[in-house]
Specification:
112 residues; mainly alpha; 7 helices; globular
Length: 112
């Protein structure tokens, strides 16, 4: 039991770090202060409020495997806030398993 909680906690921490690295410029363009980005569950809560998703998603994000799917959905919402919803962007996002958001975050200029 303790082993599962420890492994889940480590997994969720790594996922949180990946989320921050992949989306910090998007948060900045939305006008959200930096300190709010680094608080583990609060940054997801901000996205849920912006995109009018259910707050129950936070509890689903605590389950390691469902959190990956939900993070991808939130990343897509965030990504399509700044870019047109085209098939090209959609397929690049899914074929790269979400790494496309890192490419956009670090190498492209994000316009609001």
């Amino acid at each position: 039991m303790y082993k599962y909680l420890i492994v889940s906690g480590i997994f969720l921490f790594i996922e949180h770090v990946i989320h921050i690295l992949g989306t910090w410029k998007f948060y900045k363009k939305l006008g959200i202060p930096y300190w709010k980005i680094f608080i583990p569950i609060y940054n997801i809560f901000i996205l849920l409020k912006i995109y009018k998703r259910s707050i129950c998603w936070i509890f689903l994000l605590l389950i390691p495997l469902t959190s990956i799917i939900l993070i991808f959905i939130l990343w897509m919402d965030l990504f399509f806030t700044f870019f047109k919803k085209t098939k090209k962007h959609f397929f690049l996002f899914f074929l790269s398993a979400g790494l496309y958001i890192f490419y956009i975050n670090f190498f492209k200029k994000i316009k609001k």
